[in-house]
Amino acid sequence: MTEGVSEELKEKVLKYLGTVSKAKNRDVARAVEVEKALVDKAIAELAKEDKIEYIYLGTSYIQLKQ
Amino acid sequence: MADRDTPLINNLEDGPWPSYVKEIKRAAKKNAAAKDLLGVQELSFKDKITHWKHGGIVGVTGYGSGVIGRYVDVPEEFPAVEMFHTMRINMPSGWFYTTDALRKICDIWEKYGSGLTNFHGSTGDIILLGTDTKSLQPCFDELTEAGFDLGGSGSALRTPSACVGPARCEWACIDTLDICNNLTQEFQDEMHRPRWPYKFKIKVSGCPNDGVAAIARADFTIIGTWRDSLRIDQDEVRRYVKNGFDIKGIVTDKCPTKALAWDEKAQKLNLRADDCVRCMHCINKMCKAIRPGLDRGATILIGGKAPIIKGAYLSWVLVPFMKMEPPYDEAKELLHKIWEWWDENGRTRERVAELIERMGLKTFLRAVDLKPLPQMVYRPRANPYVFFD
Amino acid sequence: MGKSDIGPPSYKKMLPAVIEKNYGKWKYHEITKPGVLRHVSESGDEVWTVRAGSPRLVSIDFIRDICDIADKYCDGKLRFTSRSNVEFMTPKKENVEPIIAAVQKLGLPVGGTGKAISNIVHTQGWAHCHSAATDSSGLVKAIMDELYPYFTSMKLPAKLRVALACCINMCGAVHCSDIAIVGIHTKPPKVDNSKVSAVCEIPTTMASCPTGAIRKNPDPNVKGLVVNEEKCMYCGNCFTVCPAMPLADSTGDGVAIYVGGKVSNARHTPMFSRLAIPYLPNNPPRWPEAVNAIKNIVEVYAKHALPDERMGEWIDRVGWENFFKLTGIPFTEYHIDDFTHGIDTYRTTTQFRW
């Protein structure tokens, strides 16, 4: 299921997350202007690589691993 | 961690119903956190408020779900429960277990946690109650070695659940256990890495008796049903009547559409099949004689939820009949369309039913490519305020 | 990093042999006595089930105890129901009484079938939850001690489903139960402005309020929030988003009782539970006010409902006016719905009972 996720996209996601305190996948997809399904996959990979983490403030967000 | 007196909760060791206080005490013999939990529970009984706090970032690598951070608000008094996190473990469909599997979970939880559990939590997961942050990852690693994985939490797909279904029920019109297991396996990423406005639940009931309360508790409700006629075994019907069964009082008078009538003279139970709304009452009362039809599938309904925020909803009919054969592509495709629309348009903590109410069922149906059908409503609108476009 | 996203183990590995063999082939069932089911297959095979009540919050030793029973009589397999009961299944009729004896030796009741009160579905309460307005396990224990004879018998007009949620978040989704017990707050959140800016997001917290009661603090020197107390209906949504707005209160918190809901489509369509008693105090360890109120409702229902009539169907037949008369519960302004879908409940006919 991870076909099509490039290192370049993951870099873009990390770069965007560096500019905000937290975000939802939807916000990331809009910011990097890539289809959301693909961004979801990139975020899953980044989570497994321990580069991002999840927080819950009434709804769930992602952020760069502190 | 001196032994404390807990007179208020000790009161709940008495009485005929099995006592959870005794259970906490059993765990407390081996575990300091369970022992402190007794003290916290006693303090809450005295103060009449909770002493737990939520928040913080806790979890296992790669996941945003399945662990709920929990902290006591009086850690100086109860240091062993300063951290008392919950782990949600995805149960097997239908809550069937081998004792080997259960014993493995118990051994792992004895090693890493308080030894206290819920079998099961409201959504259906095995709930492992109380551990500290550093134990989460090793506990999770051992659980996955034993074949178990975390369930959902946060703004994610929550652990799907299903009634006992064809495993031990003659009324199951769909394979609830396989559907539940198949969807759970398909949507692991949606469960474990929360991304949506809020939670989303899927529940699968095998018949309109709705044994897992799917219509009230699931955003995506799958209820088994049939399109052809009830099957009636007239010999068995006569056997019921001969044994003194009040077929008129118990069955035909209670049929909501008066589709059934008992012909005393001909000793025959007559059915006007077109009027049957498949409520299950006659089947429930005479299961040896009346059975669901054979052209089986599911009614899909959307939106069931508890009150937060805009009020409670029962699910609304979305697809009156869908065949449910593996790999369930039609249902999966529909789910993807629903999630895409909801994720694009939903506000923070807005469930899908609330979004449908805010934006209109018409808009929703267009987004998921479904045509309006009279089965979706009780009655059409009475007002003239139609938007023509 | 170890395995990830393996999902739950397949149910197929967990099924008793008789279940696996007769999967999808069951023909009919009967309840031979309270807590004992006999399912018969098209193949002629049968499976006997013994259903036992559980406190749900249990130690691992409890799980090991029930595993011992399953190892001895059920080839090492067992299951749980959606209401936290334990079910022991065996193709051998001669195992039924020994299973019952073993279950009772553990102090567990056998029952919860047919026209009974099954186990109470409930939430975490003061044992584990940050937003609980009442306890769950304790209150459930107090209620089930009183309703115990209804679990072990089948003497009610129909099944009676009781559920308890310790706050209106209702993670136990109790809102369609014959009797729903709901923990409620009755006082607005106490804003701790010294913490708000540190632990909460101000716009998110304001947006979380369904009635728009939360505003920025008008004092420019205070970076925080204020609550318009007249608009607050104590839902606690803001507290979930912002921990600096607790609403737990020793005297204000209590329970409300809702009745007449159902999820089954049998006869009447599914129904929401509706408000019977707006507020009863938290009075641990036995909650006598709540327990007595519930017992009264059960007894009035048992006396007046016709066979097979669920609570909501009985009330539907006799009218809410008679429900309040027969139970002696006062009808108050709190019972009139003034929330979003409220006007649908106002009576638009001259048909009613005196």
> From the coordinates shown, what is the CATH architecture of the largest domain in chain C?
2-Layer Sandwich
How much beta of chain B, percentage-wise?
A: 15-25%
Order of H and E elements of chain B = HHHEEEEEHEEHEHHEHEEHHEEHEEEHHH
Instruction: Extract low-pLDDT stretches of chain C.
Output: none
Counted by DSSP, the helix tally of chain C is 10
Strand count, sense and barrel status of the largest sheet of chain C are: 5 strands, antiparallel
Broad shape of chain B: globular
Alpha carbon gyration radius of chain B: 25 Å
Shape of chain C: globular
What is the count of β-strands of chain C? 13
Sheet bearing the most strands of chain B, described?
Answer: 5 strands, mixed
Record keyword descriptors for this entry.
heterotrimer, A: 66 residues, alpha+beta, Arc Repressor Mutant, subunit A, two-stranded antiparallel ribbon, 3 helices, globular, B: 389 residues, Alpha-Beta Plaits, Sulfite Reductase Hemoprotein, domain 1, 5-stranded mixed sheet, 4-stranded antiparallel sheet, 14 helices, 16 strands, 16% strand
Could you characterize what this model shows?
- The complex is a heterotrimer of chains A (66), B (389) and C (354).
- By secondary structure, chain A is of the alpha+beta class.
- Chain A has one domain (7-64): Orthogonal Bundle (Arc Repressor Mutant, subunit A), CATH 1.10.10.10.
- Chain A has three helices and two strands, in the order αααββ.
- Chain A has helices at 7-17, 25-32, 36-48; strands at 52-56, 60-64.
- Chain A is globular.
- The model of chain A has no long low-confidence stretch (mean pLDDT 92).
- Chain B has 14 helices and 16 strands.
- In chain B, strands 8-9-10-15-16 form a five-stranded mixed sheet. In chain B, strands 2-4-7-6 form a four-stranded antiparallel sheet.
- In chain B, 58% of the residues are buried.
- Chain C is 27% helix and 18% strand.
- With 354 residues, chain C is α+β, with helices and mostly antiparallel strands.
- In chain C, α4 (137-151) packs parallel to α8 (288-304).
- Chain C has three domains: 18-105, Alpha-Beta Plaits, CATH 3.30.70.3340; 121-186 and 251-345, 2-Layer Sandwich (Sulfite Reductase Hemoprotein, domain 1); 193-241, Alpha-Beta Plaits (2-Layer Sandwich), CATH 3.30.70.
- Chain C has helices spanning 17-21, 60-73, 96-105, 137-151, 193-199, 202-208, 237-241, 288-304, 311-318, 320-327, and strands at residues 26-33, 36-41, 46-52, 57-59, 77-80, 86-90, 121-122, 162-165, 179-184, 214-216, 225-227, 254-259, 274-281.
- The model of chain C has no long low-confidence stretch (mean pLDDT 96).
- Chains in contact: A-B, A-C, B-C.
